[in-house]
Amino acid sequence: MSFLSKFTRPDYTLTSADFKMILFIIKLNALIGYFLLSSSCIFFILGFSFLIAGFDSYFVYFIIGGLCLLLGLLSLLPTRKYYLPSRTISKAMKSNNSKLLFSLLEIEDLSKSNDQFAFVLAFYALVDIAPNDLFDYLSLNLEMLRNNPYINYNALNKMLNSLALKLDYKDSEEMLLEFKSEIKHSSEQSFDEFADVDLRIPVTKVYFVDELSPNQRSMISGLPIDLKNDFIVACPNCGNMAEKRLLENWLVNNNICPICKRVLSIDDLPVVKMKN
After folding, report:
1. Per-domain residue ranges for the chain?
2. β-strand 241-243 against 232-234: which pairing, if any?
3. Do 101 and 125 meet the contact criterion of CB atoms below 8 Å apart?
4. What is the model's pTM?
5. CATH topology assigned to domain 206-274
6. What average pLDDT score do residues 121-147 get?
C-alpha cells in the first residue's frame, strides 16, 4: 500500500503505523547506545585490572572500550534530537491537543534538524486529528511555509497531498484551488486582486498558463519566452521562467534560482504549457 493511499483509510493513524515505528527505532537506538556505554565501562575496568596485574594485553581492552564509548555516544545522538519531540507530539495526539501541534508549525527558524523533524510529525499528526483545522490554517499561512528556506519543496508537496486525500480531494492541486476561494471569501478580495498572490505549488509536473505577457523573458538568456519552439520550465517559488537546457546548465554550478535565490533542483521545475 502506498504512503498516500493509507490516509484514505478512516482507521489509519500515524500513531498506529509510521509514528509508532519512528518511536520504536529511536528507542532501539537508545537501548543500543546505553548497552555500548555499559560495555565500554566494563572493558575500561578490565583494561585497568590487566594494567595493574602487569599483563601486556591491557591496551586491547582500552581500545575496545574506547570504540564502545564512541559508538554508544553516536547511537544516543538521535535519541536526544528526535525522541523528545516525538514523545511530545505523541502525547499531543493522544490528548487531541491540536493547539500544541499548531505551535510547532509556527516555528520560522527550522535550521535545526530536530525542529524540522518536529514540524513534519506535527503536520501529519494534525492530518490525523484535525484535518479541517489544518486546512483553514494552510489557507492563510501557505505562503509563509512555502517561502521558508528550510522546508523542502518535495516534502511539502507530499504533506499537502496527504491532507488533500484525507479531506477527499482528488489531489493537492484541487485543494489549492479551494484555498484560493477560501482566502477570497474571507478577505472579500476580487478574484483579479487575488490572482497576483502566488500559490503555485505544482503537484503535477506541468504548469498551465492562460497567456504570457509580451514582456515575459527568460531569467537566464533574457530573450522572450517562446513556448512553441523552446522547452520552458518555471521556478516553483517565484514563477520566473527559462529554457530548460539553460537553467540546467545554470544549476550545475548554482543550486539556487537566479531570481528569488531559493534552493532549486532541476527535478522541482514544472514544464510550462499554454492551457489551450
Report:
1. 1-94, 96-203, 206-274
2. antiparallel
3. yes
4. 0.50
5. Herpes Virus-1 (3.30.40)
6. 82
